[in-house]
Task: structure prediction
Amino acid sequence: MKNLLLALFILPLFCFAQGAPTDTINLNEGNFHTSWSHKAKYPVKVCWHLTPDMLNCPHPLKRCNCFQADPLLAGETKLTGDYSKSGYDQGHNFDAADDDCAPQQLNLHCWYFTNMTPQLPSLNRITWKDLEDQCRAWVKAGDELFIECGSYGQLKTIGPDKVWVPAFCWKVVKHKNGVIDSYLMPNTPDVNKHPFAYYHTDITVIRQKTGIDAI
Result:
């Protein structure tokens, strides 16, 4: 049953509305799956199953900050220079801290640019991070989460490869009891004026705005 739920969770995407790019390729990165847009050069959807085993281990990996091209798309994901001095962080979708118990070689996958989105520091380092921390707290307290997140829209582009800066980043969290929490956050300098809970919304809002059949 568990494998069936996971299979349903990673069904192909159908992105067709309001700025969610449709030119995507679905990649299996081991502990997560990502749907990468060739044009936007950010993932429109990333999904994973967060379990206690992924967070509880005697020797968690140290953060490596080893951002790099994805070998599966090496020609289009050499994007270090695009982010450099842009004012935007290389924002993880599948969070590196969710992968601290993975083998080191597998952990490198979460540092691929196919898992990165341009996020302002006020989002990536504060509001988005607080939601990531809360998800881990839920799991450490006994929960088990199916998580999907992504981005949509275009505020501008950065770098010579014209990486899109998304207007919004979203996350959908399905708890093991079936309850679904959804969040939609603007990629703006003042996003951190409110706690992450302020951005809680109904999942239908995310589906309508992105065209993505989340969860």
Observations:
- The chain has one domain: 2-210.
- The helical segments are 2-9, 80-83, 104-107, 121-140, 203-210.
- DSSP finds five helices and eleven strands in the chain.
